[in-house]
TrEMBL record:
Protein name (Swiss-Prot/TrEMBL): Hydroxyacid dehydrogenase
Membership in a protein family: Belongs to the D-isomer specific 2-hydroxyacid dehydrogenase family.
Organism field: Pedobacter ginsengisoli
Domain of life: Bacteria
GO MF, one annotated term: D-lactate dehydrogenase (NAD+) activity
Residue ranges of every copy of the D-isomer specific 2-hydroxyacid dehydrogenase NAD-binding domain listed in the record: 110-294
PROSITE patterns with a match to the protein in the record: D_2_HYDROXYACID_DH_2 (PS00670)
Domain D-isomer specific 2-hydroxyacid dehydrogenase catalytic: 16-315
Alphabetized InterPro entries for the sequence: D-isomer_2_OHA_DH_cat_dom (IPR006139), D-isomer_DH_CS (IPR029753), D-isomer_DH_NAD-bd (IPR006140), D-LDH-like (IPR058205), NAD(P)-bd_dom_sf (IPR036291)
Keyword annotations: NAD, Oxidoreductase
Length: 317
């Protein structure tokens, strides 16, 4: 089948071609999918997107008019796709349910450790030959309580990592009956009350949007560390910013940001106007932001390519 890949990163293209082994006709563009770029899909059977492609009703309407029958996303999350509209046009949707949960769990741990030991500031100071220690006091993870919200593929992969650091691990998942080793399942309020570090591993949907807001933050320990490698809109950024200002939140590690669409995955260094909320967050020494890169390991990219081509194979069959 013919498939057009939107938002293709240079590193992905060769992996996709390798996995494809010349079976399908693949066309790549670095452009994001929008009502302005749907025409690139003319003549294709399938459209392959990523998290920054807004697959909204107007976009799907145009794709359907072009005869597109399939939309595959090279991601776990599907919050960027209007599934109801796709269903209306009988367009099939596929995601990648799990490609390398360890990649994301390890990135969450990397953010947490880098924050606790002030690694970014330390490195910046060292580069200026400033080897003083005054502002670099960290804390041990050993003995701390880590609260995992969401115990699917990624939440589960985070358990042995934090266990290995000597943490007590508590968790909450909407699905009851998770009988997992090395973790105590608790209700959400108990997690907020007891966790020194909270790491989010849930999908974005109507139920989870802004799950971290003023009300939930009030229930947390003063000085809590929050790590979000899941989706930006799980966090109400303005409320978190307020809590960072008062010290209620001690540390914040974000791989995803509420307003990242049209910003992340691209170089905006020359922009005259910059997102003020993000700029303020980045000025804080206890905030660490990465550009939605938790998935970006060789192993994960190979698996994404492999599973994307498998999806095209299944549809063709
Ligand atoms: P998963 O589907 O395997 O697990 C999600 C878990 O969340 C499930 O156990 C589910 O029961 C639970 N859940 C759903 N709604 C809940 C709620 N309201 N409260 C508590 N638990 C709830 O997904 P996963 O592979 O673990 O991925 C989790 C999320 O991470 C994805 O949805 C995606 O948004 C994000 N993600 C980010 C990156 C990145 O690069 N930053 C990469 C992959 C995935």
């Amino acid at each position: 089948m013919k498939a057009i890949f939107y938002s293709t990163k240079s590193v992905e293209k060769s992996l996709m071609l390798h996995a494809n082994n010349q079976r399908h006709d693949l066309v790549f563009t670095t452009r994001t999918l929008s009502t302005e770029t749907t025409s690139f899909a003319e003549g294709a059977d399938a459209v392959v997107v990523f998290t920054n492609d807004n697959v909204t009703a107007p976009v799907i309407h145009k794709l359907a008019a072009l005869g597109i029958r399939y939309i595959a996303t090279r991601s776990v999350g599907i919050d960027h796709i209007d599934r109801v509209t796709a269903e209306k046009y009988e367009i099939k949707i596929a995601n990648i349910p799990a490609y390398s949960p360890q990649a994301i769990a390890e990135h969450a741990a990397a953010l947490a450790l880098a924050l606790s030991r002030h690694l970014v500031q330390a490195s910046q100071q060292c580069q200026h030959f400033n080897f003083s220690l005054n502002n670099l006091i960290g804390f041990n993870f050993y003995g701390k309580t880590v609260g995992l919200i969401g115990l699917g593929h990624i939440g589960k992969a985070a358990i042995p990592i934090f266990k290995g650091l000597g943490c007590k691990i508590i968790g909450y998942d909407i699905l009851p009956g998770q009988n997992l080793p090395d973790i105590e399942m608790v209700d959400l309020d108990a997690l907020y009350k007891n966790a020194d570090v909270i790491s989010l591993h849930i999908p974005l949907n109507e139920q989870t949007e802004h799950i971290i807001d003023r009300t939930s933050i009030e229930k947390m320990k003063t000085g809590v560390m929050i790590i979000n490698t899941a989706r930006g809109s799980l966090i109400k950024t303005t409320d978190v910013l307020d809590a960072l200002r008062t010290g209620k939140i001690g540390y914040l590690g974000l791989d995803v940001y509420e307003n990242e669409h049209g910003l992340f995955f691209e170089d905006h260094e020359a922009d005259q106007v910059r997102d003020p909320l993000l700029s303020e967050l980045m000025r804080m020494p206890n905030v660490l932001i990465t550009p939605h890169q938790a998935f970006l390991t060789t192993e994960a990219l190979e698996e994404i390519a492999h599973q994307t081509i498998n999806t095209l194979n299944s549809w063709e069959n």
